[in-house]
């Protein structure tokens, strides 16, 4: 594909990963009308788990932001699988982010900025979104971050 968003990805030196297959009885995405809901994406890269551990114990904010960015790229890969052409995206509506946190860690919003900044970097003004940044005691497979998202498409 050679649309505006694909060109933007190329300019930024970003290669989206292959969309991850679901590992249980759920769909990776569901389209309803002009909304695409993407199931939670974890820190998987080239079939390998990255960033396994807790923020505030195993990782600091900067590494957490890298983990959140990886989740964002996985969200966009799923979105491309769902709609084909990323130029159809009219708005990143909402991100729900879960941060595997040590009990004393309170910088979940700073961690999730890694995903939010990525959405704006790629989609521009349409990448600005509502979000939640929640600290949790654990996440699937022990990953540091998991993010799901809602996208509006034409």
Give structural notes:
This is Endoribonuclease L-PSP/chorismate mutase-like domain-containing protein. Residues 6-133 form the Endoribonuclease L-PSP/chorismate mutase-like domain. This protein has 154 residues and is an alpha+beta fold. It has a single domain, classed as 60s Ribosomal Protein L30, Chain: A (2-Layer Sandwich). The protein contains 3 helices and 7 strands; from the N terminus they run H-E-E-E-E-H-E-H-E-E. It has helices at residues 4-12, 61-83, 108-123, and strands at residues 29-32, 35-41, 44-45, 48-49, 89-100, 130-136, 145-153. It has a 5-stranded mixed β-sheet. Helix 3 (108-123) links the parallel strand 5 and strand 6. Helix 2 (61-83) packs across helix 3. It is globular and about 45 Å long.
């Amino acid at each position: 594909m050679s649309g505006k968003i694909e060109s933007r990805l190329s300019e930024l030196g970003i290669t989206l990963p292959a969309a991850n297959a679901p590992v249980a009885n759920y769909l990776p995405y569901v389209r309803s009308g002009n909304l695409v809901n993407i199931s939670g994406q974890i820190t998987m890269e080239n079939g390998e788990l990255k960033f396994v551990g807790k923020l505030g114990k195993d990782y600091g904010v900067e590494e957490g932001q890298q983990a959140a960015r990886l989740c964002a790229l996985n969200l966009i890969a799923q979105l491309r699988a769902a709609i084909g052409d990323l130029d159809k995206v009219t708005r990143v509506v909402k991100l729900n982010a879960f941060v595997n946190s040590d009990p004393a860690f309170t910088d979940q919003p700073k961690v999730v900025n890694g995903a939010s900044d990525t959405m704006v970097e790629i989609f521009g003004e349409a990448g600005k979104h509502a979000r939640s940044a929640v600290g949790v005691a654990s996440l699937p497979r022990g990953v540091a971050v998991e993010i799901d998202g809602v996208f509006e498409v034409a």
